[in-house]
Amino acid sequence: MITINTNKLEYKLIAVPNNETNINILDKPSCVTFISESKTFYLVIKKDSMSYLRQLKLGLASFIQMCKGDTNIDFNSFVKVIPNVNKEIIFNVICDVILFETHKFITYKKDVKTNDYLFNIDQSEDFSDLLDENILKNKYVNYARDLQDFPPNIGTSDFYGEKLLKDSSKIEGLKVSVLKNKELKELDMNLVLAVNQGSNHDANVVVMEFNNNPGGKKIALVGKGICFDTGGYDLKPSAFIEGMKFDMTGAAIVMSIAMALAEAKAKINLVAVGLFTDNKIGQKAVLPESIIKSKNGLTVEISNTDAEGRLVLADGITYAIREKNADVIYDIATLTGATAMALGESASGVFTEFDEMWKKLNEASNYTTERFWRLPIFAEHKEQVKNDSVLADLTNSCKKGPGGSTAAAFLTFFAEDKEFLHIDCSRVVRVGLKGQGYIVKTMFELLKK
């Protein structure tokens, strides 16, 4: 729990630039030292090749692990040692780390210790509204993390459909529906159904709507929700199948963003489409070289069954445009290994032909300290998607070229000239086998206004 200026607690946390205060302080960037005599934790933040904010994040995470009881945080000491950074951003990071590290995460272990300490931020300005917003944002960061962390034998498409319907019904003004195979067939969402063919569960397309901006544009968030991705008949090797329960992260993120914005009563007209299904091998699983007609009428040759994410997204984008009258589309997906190789765990890849969309996202990310990097969609990428199939309008996997860019290029054929931005969050959304709820804060910041 976090408070502001309300308590004088047993322990203190102070940021210092060196060990001048006490020679026993470990004088290394981001290191935390506890001095028992004064019941004080000292976090060293100093000029170094590691950025000030990274030192702050790593140091606070270490402090939470070491914490011994209710603690006062000397906010002004952090402002003093972190130059040229907005006070609000420093405050946000402190809240982010505390709320992230103290979250009671999904676990199936018998004995797990939880941190229920109180953290009081002593500071001179009135950040009470900012604290409330941080608590709300991080509530849904942690909600997304929980959705990510369910094991695949529990976290099926049916499970997510039922859970999201139940949880979101508690939020005033948020309308929720779940489309299963019967409804998807009526809607001609054949690409989703093709990916779902090998599964023993129906696809569950969760649709959340929140309208609170009369006359304003309709914003769509579309998320890839592959609950487990074997690769289908283009089976993944064992080295690449670990962590494939996280292939539903895009849908977890867009659902969480929608719930956060609705609870915040943001001035926005929003539809969020979470496309939950599996990509499995089975008697009825779709075969490589199959040709499927998409919801928007274009035929697609499935030249690689492991390029399934762009298939469900394509139908989801068309659904948002044609059924929900979306004017602006953002899609979020753990889509390609190519983007993961390019950016690793450092940033999400962003693909868009709309400069203003990138500019606004980048500004929001500078405030939240989540990182994004813009990558290209060139004309030749679109040509490859169109020309690599002899029999169909498009192919879902090109024979050569940069995989991240051709995947994004494929999606542009379904955006119907609407403002469109694709986020490929391949590796930043998890650390090892723990979800991170990444992107929720940035999209909340971008869309709340």
Automatic annotation (TrEMBL):
What are the protein's GO molecular function terms? manganese ion binding; metalloaminopeptidase activity
Keywords from the UniProt entry = Aminopeptidase, Hydrolase, Protease
Q: Does the keyword Protease apply?
A: yes
Q: Which residues form a coiled coil?
A: none
Keyword field contains Hydrolase: yes
Domain Cytosol aminopeptidase span(s) in chain numbering: 304-311
> Could you mention a single GO BP entry for this protein?
proteolysis
List membrane-spanning regions. Answer: none
Q: Which domain of life is it from?
A: Bacteria
The free-text function statement in the UniProt record for this protein reads: Presumably involved in the processing and regular turnover of intracellular proteins. Catalyzes the removal of unsubstituted N-terminal amino acids from various peptides.
Q: Which family does it belong to?
A: Belongs to the peptidase M17 family.
User: What's this protein's name?
Assistant: Probable cytosol aminopeptidase
Annotated source species: Mesoplasma florum (strain ATCC 33453 / NBRC 100688 / NCTC 11704 / L1) (Acholeplasma florum)
